Amino acid sequence: MAKTVEQYLEPVNAFLGCETPDAWIEFAAQPQQLPALLADHANCELKAAQTAQAVMWRYGAPRPDQQVMGDSFQATLLNKLSKLAREELRHFEQVLKIMKKLSIPYTPVPAARYAGKMIEVAANHEPQALVDRLIIGAFIEARSCERFAKLAPSLPQLVAEFYISLLKSESRHFTDYLELAESHAGKDISERVDYFRQREVMLITAVDESFRFHSGIPQKMAA
Predict the structure, then answer these.
(1) What is the tally of structural domains in the chain?
(2) Residue 223 has pLDDT above 60, yes or no
């Protein structure tokens, strides 16, 4: 039996520290914002695929300067992230297809500050650096999943149906990243997860100069 939207969102909402502010949803749902929303969504899917591949290159075949990883973890990381990267690229293609149907040109836009601000507080020593990177990946995927569901009721049917269809994969991506982080750490990571949770809440609820899929409250709405 297929899961309901609520069932997909239950673990996501339990993981996140807050819901997306109504002001962001209200702004993002405006018809004139759809081109910017979809263009940045496309960029996010492409970046997500690139990030997964970067982790695979960096940690999939350990170099002499790396901590030795168990064969089981290495295989799991490669399998999960290769599937994730393929799915993200497929989503990128699907967003482009929707944009073409809606006569919206694809224009790369500068990234939101969100991911950069999360990464800047990550550890730079191993094995914590990889654990942190995986935790951050979990938050990015969980927030994407939550926003897809919140936006869907206010968007054109073509986009709304696509966003609901993404919940299955995005919720799994969040779980995959979190499970990889826990496995690699080999210990309880709840304190570290909470550290990034607080950081993520701050970024999501703060005022942002630019509107992006992962931005905080658009400045125009906050004024």
Answers:
(1) 1
(2) no
